[in-house]
Amino acid sequence: MNPSLPKDAVVHPDPFMQAAIDEARKGLAEGGIPIGSVIVHDGKIIGRGHNRRVQDGSAIHHGEMNAFENAGRQPARVYREATLYTTLSPCSMCSGAILLYRIGRVIVGENKTFLGEEQLLRDRGVKLDVLQDPACIQMMETFIEQHPQLWNEDIGV
Predict the structure, then answer these.
(1) Lowest mean pLDDT among 4-18, 47-61, 67-81, 121-135
(2) pLDDT by residue (tens digit) across 59-79?
(3) Rounded-to-integer distance, Cα 100 and Cα 85, Å
(4) How many Å apart are CA 157 and CA 151, to the nearest integer?
(5) What does the alpha-carbon distance between residue 108 and residue 1 come to, in Å, rounded to a whole number?
(6) Confidence grade of residue 4 (pLDDT, cut at 50, 70, 90)
(7) Cβ neighbourhood burial of 14 (10 Å; 0-12, 13-18, 19+)
(8) Which pairs with CB-CB distance under 8 Å and at least 24 residues apart come from 55-63?
(9) Is residue 24 left, alpha or beta, with left meaning phi > 0 and alpha meaning psi from -120 to 50?
(10) Is 6 helix (H, G, I), strand (E, B) or coil?
(11) β-pair partners for 29
(12) Cα–Cα distances in angstroms (integers) from residue 18 to residues 24, 36, 38, 117, 124, in the given order
């Protein structure tokens, strides 16, 4: 059992979505917004991150953007062949980065609490799967209920 997980936490059957969920939990433990992301190429995580807007006073470090930052400079081919996992539907900014780097597949933990630019991504040829994962939904619902002002600031409301 992973000691950083809550006692009642269910481990996701997809290890890459689990890694994104772990990133989201890490962000929450740091006092930030619980959104996590990983970028996977050839079966390996090449970038991982979580929303760090609060922790860094950043305007742009959403989970996906932080994963891109931590993946660093990669050949265009690597990003084209990669899959991005994220616990929450990507916003306009993060979707723009997905399109810019031509990520071919995105796996979303949930879009119940926030529906990002999924249609834009699909229209531009990105294969997008939404899991409606209960752990992702519960994490965001609880956060939004407890911190509505911070959530609204993060999504630009």
Answers:
(1) 4-18
(2) 999 999 999 999 999 999 999
(3) 16
(4) 9
(5) 25
(6) very low
(7) middle
(8) 55/27, 55/30, 55/31, 60/93, 62/35, 62/91, 62/93, 62/94, 62/154, 63/20, 63/23, 63/24, 63/27, 63/35, 63/36, 63/37, 63/87, 63/88, 63/94
(9) alpha
(10) coil
(11) none
(12) 10, 10, 10, 23, 27
Confidence of residue 3 (pLDDT cuts 50, 70, 90): very low
Strand partners, 106: 84, 128
Tell me the β-bridge partners of 127. Answer: 105
Handedness of CA 90, 91, 95, 97 (dihedral sign): negative
Q: Which residue matches tokens 């992973």? A: 2
CB-based contact 63:24 (threshold 8 Å): yes
User: Quick one: DSSP state of residue 124?
Assistant: T
Which positions are annotated as active-site residues? 64
pLDDT at 10: 60
The DSSP secondary-structure symbol of 125 reads: T
- Global pTM value: 0.91
Q: Which of 143, 71, 72, 64 is nearest to 107 (CA)?
A: 64
SS3 state of residue 39: strand
